[in-house]
Amino acid sequence: MLAMTKYFLLGCLLSPFLSRAQNPAANAAVIKGYQYFQGGNFAEAIKYYDQAIKADDKYADAYYYRGSALWKTGNLDPALRDFNKAIHLNPSDADYYGERGNVYAQQKDYKKAEINFKRSLELNQTNPTRFYNYGRLLTETDRNAEAIVMFSKAIDRNPKYLTALYYRGDAYYLTGNQEAAVNDFSKVIELKNLQPDLINNISYKLLIYEASYKRGSVYGELKQYDNADKDLTSCTELDNTKMKAFNNRGYYRIMAGKPDAAIKDFDHVLKNDPSNALAYNNRGLAWYYLKNYKTAEEDCLRSLKYKPDNAWAYLNLGKIYIASGKQASACEHLQKASRLGNKEAESLSRTTCK
The CATH number of the domain where 24 resides is what? Predict the structure, then answer.
C-alpha cells in the first residue's frame, strides 16, 4: 500500500460560522481557532479552542475542533478524549463519530474504528470522505471486496476523488480484477493531461507516481511490456530517487528480451542503493539471459548476502548452475529455493535432480 499522507483523512470540518454555541465569546474563539486550523497552525488553533471551552464547557463543537487539531499534531489520546466529550454532549453528530473512528484507526484499534465509521454513516451519508475512510480501514484489514463498495460510494458522491480511485484500483488488483484496476489507475493518471498544473502539487505528483507504478506493474504481469515500460519510465521521470520503478522496469525489460537495457536500470539502482538485494538478483538474471554465467552467479550471491532467505536468488543460481553444467550445485540451490516456498524451483528440481 502506498504511504502518502495519513491513511485516514479528516472529514470536512463543520464551519464555525454555522456554530451551535450560545456563548458569543466561545463562538468568537472557535472562529479564530478555525482560521489558524485552516492555515495549518494547529498549535495556535488549539489555544483558541481552549479559550472556547473555558468560556463554555458544554460547547460540543469546540471539543470536536480541538480534537481534530490534536489529531493532526499526533496527540491521539487527548484527541480521543475530546471526541468522546463531543459525542457525550451531542450524540447525533456524524462528524464526531467519523473523527473518533480516525483516531481508533490510527491506533490500529480497527474494531472500534469500524463501529464509529458505521455510526457516522448511519447518521449522514453525504460526505464522501466518510466512505473513503471506511474503505481504507477495510483495506487495512484485508477486506478488499468490501472496501471496493465503500470507495465506489465515495466516488459516486465525488467522481474526481482521486485517492478513492487509486485505492479502489489497488483493491481491484488485490481481488484479481486487473482490468478494473487498470481503469481506475488510468483515471487518476489522465487528470494529469486534463489539468497539467496539478503535477506541481506534491501530493498529486506522488499519487500520479504510485498510480503509474501500479498500472505499469499490472501491464507487466499481463505481458504488455511496452505499456509497462512507458508507465515505469514515467515514474522515473517524476521521481528518479525512488528505486522501485527502475527495478520493475528492469525486470520487465528482461521479460521483453532486452537484458542489456535492464542491466542499466539495475546499475542505476545499485549506484544509489548498494545493498539492494532485489537489484542484484534481477541483474544476475539479466546476465544469465546474456549467458554471462560467472557475473550472473556473482550478482545472485551478492543478493543472498543482503537477503539470505531470497528464494528467487536460489532459483536463479540453480538455473545458472544447470547452464554451467554444475548439476550438484544446481540441485542444492533449487532445493533451498523449494524449501523457501518457490514453486518454480520445486518443479525444476523434480525434472533436474534425481
Answer: 1.25.40.10
Instruction: Compute, in degrees rounded to 10, the torsion defined by CA atoms 321, 325, 329, 333.
Output: 30
User: What is the C-alpha separation between 34 and 69, in angstroms, rounded?
Assistant: 9
CB-CB neighbours of 202 under 10 Å: 9
Report the alpha-carbon angle 351-348-251, nearest 5: 155
Distance CA 83, CA 60 (A): 9
Torsion of CA 144, 149, 154, 159, to 10 degrees: 100
pLDDT of res. 354: 73
For the segment 76-114, what is each residue's pLDDT rounded down to a tens digit? Answer: 999 999 999 999 999 999 999 999 999 999 999 999 999
The CA distance from 101 to 118, in Å, is: 9
Domain of residue 85, residue span: 1-124
Contact 307, 314 (CB under 8 A): no
Q: Is residue 96 part of a domain?
A: yes
**pLDDT, tens digit (0-9, with 9 covering 90-100), for 184-242:** 999 999 977 666 665 566 788 899 999 999 999 999 999 999 999 999 999 999 999 99
Q: Does residue 1 register a pLDDT over 50?
A: no
Q: How far apart are CA 137 and CA 70, in angstroms?
A: 21
What is the amino acid identity at position 328?
A: A
Integer Cα distance of 4 and 203 in angstroms: 7
> Measured between alpha carbons, how far is 114 from 108 in angstroms, rounded to an integer?
11
Digit-coded pLDDT (tens) for 255-312: 999 999 999 999 999 999 999 999 999 999 999 999 999 999 999 999 999 999 999 9
Joined grid coordinates for residue 82 = 475530546
Domain membership flag for residue 272? no
The identity of residue 27, as a single letter, is: N
What is the count of structural domains for the chain? 1
pTM score, two decimals? 0.86
Confidence at residue 281, expressed as pLDDT on a 0 to 100 scale: 98
Q: Does 60 map to a domain?
A: yes
